[in-house]
Amino acid sequence: MLIQKLNDCEEIIAGDGTVLRELLHPDKQDINLRYSLAYAILPVGKTSIPHSLKTSEVYYIISGVGEMSINSEVRRIEPGDTVYIPPNAIQFLHNYGNELGC
């Protein structure tokens, strides 16, 4: 059984200022999972760096509002939204709200 506690995961500050804690990642743990799960905070007014991963990702928005870009599609996101990001898709997030979000 694998149980990950958020506060036990190393905090990483990405080059765009996004605060990350990777909870589950198929390339970094011996688990049969086809997506990564991380806790992220994107400061107000910031945009994450466009990037892609070999595996899919799932974002669940806890707070803040913004725009999610996946390849050429851009959509508004808000608390309660779940976003599926397919493997190799170019993605980035912009927080245009007034609170930390992701």
Keywords:
single chain; mainly beta; Jelly Rolls; three-stranded antiparallel sheet
Descriptive overview:
The chain is mostly beta strands and 102 residues long. The protein has one domain: Jelly Rolls (Sandwich). It contains no helices and 8 strands. It has strands at residues 12-13, 19-24, 35-41, 56-60, 66-70, 73-77, 82-85, 91-95. The strands form 2 sheets. Strands 1-2-3-4-7 form a 5-stranded mixed β-sheet, with no helix packed on it. The protein has a 3-stranded antiparallel β-sheet with strand order 6-5-8, with no helix packed on it. The chain starts with 11 loop residues before the first strand and ends in a 7-residue tail after the last strand.
